[in-house]
Amino acid sequence: MLLACSLAGCGVEESTGWTATVYYTAVEEFHHEPPVGVRGCPDRDCVFGDADLGRHPAGFVAAVREEGTGRLEAGGYLNWSHNVGYWLDSEPRDAAGDALRPFVSAAADPGVLARGTAFRLMDCGRFPAGAVCARLLEARWVVVDEFTPGFGGDRHVDLYLGEETGPGFTTGPWYATLAGATVAQE
What we know:
This protein is mainly beta. It has helices at residues 2-8, 58-67, 131-138, and strands at residues 13-27, 35-40, 51-57, 69-71, 77-81, 85-89, 105-107, 118-123, 141-145, 156-163, 177-185. The chain is built from 3 helices and 11 strands, in the order H-E-E-E-H-E-E-E-E-E-H-E-E-E. A hairpin with a 5-residue loop joins strand 4 and strand 5.
């Protein structure tokens, strides 16, 4: 009976042809480029502030702008959003200001998957089987974040991994794009 229920759906809607990308929290200590000045908000209760947020490695600042968050060597986080700019915070944040959770938080365009939608990856599409694929399949993801306008699209989810694990993270196996994946909405 359990098998019949899982195959019949029982509240699960599967669809194929998804692209799953990943995002992460950059870690300042792994970046050693020349420093650049950053201006923004000293806390998350302002928009496009002009306070001096310090000087940080250029690659780290670029990663924060691309990924949305970075852990500072001095403690705390430098976050970025297209509708807020840079700000300092005590945690990496999603679009609603809640803390991002590794292997739980996901992003999607609101018209594709609404905030609060839970889903699982059922396969990794054309991405090779292995430890990365297995770990992404184990997770139960929840849409809590949104793409920067123009970066999402139909059948595209972005999966939050947590902190980068060392220098060169974006050339390693965890910086993955899964094309042709199957998503099961719960």
